[in-house]
C-alpha cells in the first residue's frame, strides 16, 4: 500500500467513526473537509481549510476526534492540524518533541509521600493525594487542595507527580504555577503559537497548577482554562489544583469554573500542631544528618508561625551556626543563632513598617512615592516585593495590613511577593545578600 493510500485508508476509518460521534452539521462543515497529509510517529496530520476551521475543531471537536482514532484501533494515538501558510498551524514535524520536552517547572524529586510529615491538620489532604497518585483520573477529579502558604500543598503536588512517575512512567505529567501558565498564554498570543499552547496543556495525562487563585480577574485566561479543563475531564485525565482559599472565596471567578473546581474533591490543610512541628523538625534534621536535643526542638517550634518554610529556615540557621562555630547543637546555641529572628522579650517598636520602607528606599535609592506607587518598572517592583517579604519576615502583621501599607495592594499580591522572594533568595545569591543587607540596616536603626 502506497503512502497516500495508507493515509486515505486511515482517514476513511477515522472519519466514519467520527461521523457517529459528532453532529451532522458540524461533521460536514469541519471534519469532512479535512485532508490527511502525513503521519508523524503515531499521530496523523490533517490539513484544514482555514485557521478558523482549525480553531473550531481544536476547541469543540478534538475530544470526539481522538475518541474516533482510539476506537479504530489502528495504532494511532492522536492527530495534529495543519493549515497551509499559517504560522499558528504549521506543518512542523518537530512540534510534538517541543511539547514533550518543554516543562515550565521541574518536579522536585525530594518531595515524596515518604518525606511528607503527616499530622491531624493535613491527614485528609495527604490521603486524597495518595488516592489520586494511585488511580489518576478516577479517584478524585479534580483534586483541589487549599490552605495558607507554606503548609505543604506544593509538596503534595510533587509527591503525586513522583509517585505516578514511579508507578507508571509512561503517563505524561505537567506541573506548573498559575504565573507560568499566564506567561505562556500571553506569549502564545504575541508569538502566534496558540495551538501549541493548547496542545501542550490538553495532551497530558495529569495537569497540576499551583496557586490557581491568581487566575482571578483575567477573563480571557479563565476562558482558555475552562476549555482545557473540560477537554481533560472528558478524557478522564487527572487535574490537581492548589489555592490559598476554597473555590467559593476566589473572587472574581466565573461560576462555571468555580462549580467545576468543587465538582471533585476539595480538601484543606490547616496549620500544624506543636507535635507535628517537632516531627517535621526531626525529619528535616535527619535529612541534613543532624540530631537535635528535645529542648532545641521545642524551642524552634515555639513562636515559629504557621508555615513549614519558616520552621525549616530556623532549623537551617541553627545548623549553620553549629558548623560555623564547630559547636554541638544546644539550646544556648539555638538562642544565639536566632537572636535576630527570635526575641524572647520582643519590643514591637524596634522594627516598624516605616523603618523597613525607609531602609528599602535608601538601599535601592528610590523614593517612597515610587515604592508605594503603581509603577511596573522592574527595579521598583523588585524593591516593593522585597519590602513586602521583609514585613512578613520581621513583623507579625496581617497580609491585608501590609498590603494597605504598601500602597493598597491586596493580600494575595503580598503573599505572592513574599513567596517569590523567599524562593529567589534561595536561588539567587545577589538577592539573598540584598535582603540580608537591608535587614541589617533595619535592625541597626
Mean pLDDT level: 84
Compressed to H and E, one letter per element, the order equals HHEEHEHHEHEHHEHEHEHHHHHHHHHH
Distance between the termini: 84 Å
Give the strand tally.
Answer: 8
Main β-sheet, spatial strand arrangement? 5-6-7-4-8
Helix content: 55-70%
Question: How much is the radius of gyration in Å?
Answer: 26 Å
**Beta-strand level of the residues, as a percent range?**
5-15%
Residue ranges: pLDDT <50 for 5 or more in a row? Answer: 93-103, 340-349
Shape: elongated
Q: Biggest sheet, in brief?
A: 5 strands, parallel
Structural class: alpha/beta
Number of helical runs? 20
In short:
By secondary structure, the protein is an alpha/beta fold. The strands form two sheets. A five-stranded parallel β-sheet has the order 5-6-7-4-8, sandwiched between helices. A three-stranded mixed β-sheet has the order 1-2-3.
Protein described:
The protein is of the alpha/beta class and 445 residues long. The protein contains 20 helices and eight strands. It has helices at residues 3-19, 24-31, 51-72, 95-101, 123-134, 153-167, 178-190, 194-202, 219-234, 255-261, 274-287, 294-301, 308-325, 331-337, 353-364, 368-372, 378-394, 399-405, 411-427, 429-444; strands spanning 35-40, 43-47, 78-82, 143-146, 173-177, 206-210, 238-243, 265-268. It has a five-stranded parallel sheet with strand order 5-6-7-4-8, sandwiched between helices. Strands 1-2-3 form a three-stranded mixed sheet. Helix 3 (51-72) links the parallel strand 2 (43-47) and strand 3. Helix 11 crosses helix 12 (294-301), helix 11 (274-287) packs across helix 13 and helix 18 crosses helix 19. It starts with a helix and ends with a helix.
Amino acid at each position: 500500500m502506497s503512502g497516500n493510500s495508507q493515509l486515505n485508508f486511515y482517514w476513511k476509518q477515522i472519519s466514519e467513526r467520527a461521523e457517529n460521534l459528532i453532529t451532522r452539521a458540524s461533521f460536514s462543515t469541519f471534519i469532512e473537509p479535512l485532508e490527511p497529509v502525513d503521519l508523524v510517529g503515531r499521530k496523523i496530520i490533517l490539513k484544514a481549510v482555514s485557521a478558523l476551521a482549525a480553531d473550531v475543531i481544536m476547541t469543540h471537536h478534538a475530544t470526539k476526534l481522538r475518541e474516533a482514532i482510539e476506537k479504530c484501533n489502528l495504532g494511532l494515538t492522536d492527530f495534529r492540524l495543519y493549515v497551509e501558510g499559517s504560522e499558528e498551524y504549521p506543518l512542523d514535524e518537530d512540534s510534538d518533541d517541543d511539547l514533550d520536552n518543554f516543562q515550565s517547572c521541574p518536579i522536585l524529586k525530594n518531595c515524596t509521600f515518604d518525606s511528607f510529615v503527616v499530622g491531624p491538620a493535613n491527614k485528609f489532604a495527604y490521603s486524597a493525594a495518595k488516592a489520586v497518585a494511585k488511580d489518576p483520573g478516577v479517584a478524585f477529579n479534580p483534586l483541589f487542595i487549599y490552605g495558607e502558604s507554606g503548609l505543604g500543598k506544593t509538596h503534595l503536588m510533587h509527591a503525586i507527580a513522583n509517585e505516578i512517575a514511579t508507578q507508571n512512567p509512561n503517563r505524561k505529567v505537567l506541573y506548573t504555577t498559575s504565573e507560568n501558565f499566564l506567561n505562556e498564554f500571553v506569549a502564545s498570543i504575541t508569538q502566534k503559537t496558540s495551538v501549541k499552547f493548547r496542545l501542550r496543556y490538553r495532551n497530558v495525562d495529569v495537569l497540576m497548577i499551583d496557586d490557581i487563585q491568581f487566575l482571578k480577574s483575567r477573563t480571557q485566561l479563565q476562558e482558555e482554562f475552562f476549555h482545557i479543563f473540560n477537554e481533560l475531564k472528558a478524557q478522564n485525565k487527572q487535574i490537581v489544583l492548589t489555592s490559598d482559599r476554597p473555590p467559593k472565596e476566589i473572587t472574581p471567578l466565573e461560576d462555571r469554573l468555580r462549580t467545576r473546581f468543587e465538582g471533585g474533591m476539595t480538601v484543606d490543610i490547616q496549620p500544624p500542631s506543636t507535635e507535628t512541628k517537632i516531627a517535621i523538625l526531626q525529619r528535616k534534621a535527619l535529612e541534613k544528618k543532624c540530631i537535635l536535643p528535645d529542648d532545641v526542638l521545642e524551642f524552634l517550634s515555639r513562636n515559629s508561625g504557621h508555615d513549614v518554610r519558616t520552621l525549616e529556615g530556623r532549623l537551617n540557621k541553627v545548623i549553620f551556626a553549629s558548623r560555623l562555630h564547630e559547636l554541638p547543637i544546644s539550646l544556648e546555641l539555638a538562642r544565639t543563632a536566632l537572636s535576630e529572628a527570635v526575641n524572647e522579650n520582643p519590643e514591637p517598636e524596634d522594627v516598624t513598617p516605616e523603618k523597613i520602607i525607609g531602609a528599602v528606599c535608601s538601599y535601592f535609592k528610590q523614593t517612597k512615592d515610587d515604592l508605594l506607587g503603581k509603577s511596573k518598572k522592574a527595579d521598583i517592583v523588585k524593591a516593593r516585593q522585597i519590602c513586602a517579604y521583609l514585613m512578613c519576615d520581621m513583623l507579625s502583621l496581617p497580609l491585608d495590613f501590609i498590603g494597605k501599607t504598601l500602597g493598597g495592594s491586596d493580600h494575595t499580591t503580598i503573599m505572592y511577593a513574599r513567596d517569590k522572594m523567599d524562593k529567589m533568595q534561595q536561588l539567587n545569591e545577589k538577592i539573598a545578600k540584598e535582603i540580608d543587607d537591608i535587614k541589617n540596616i533595619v535592625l541597626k536603626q
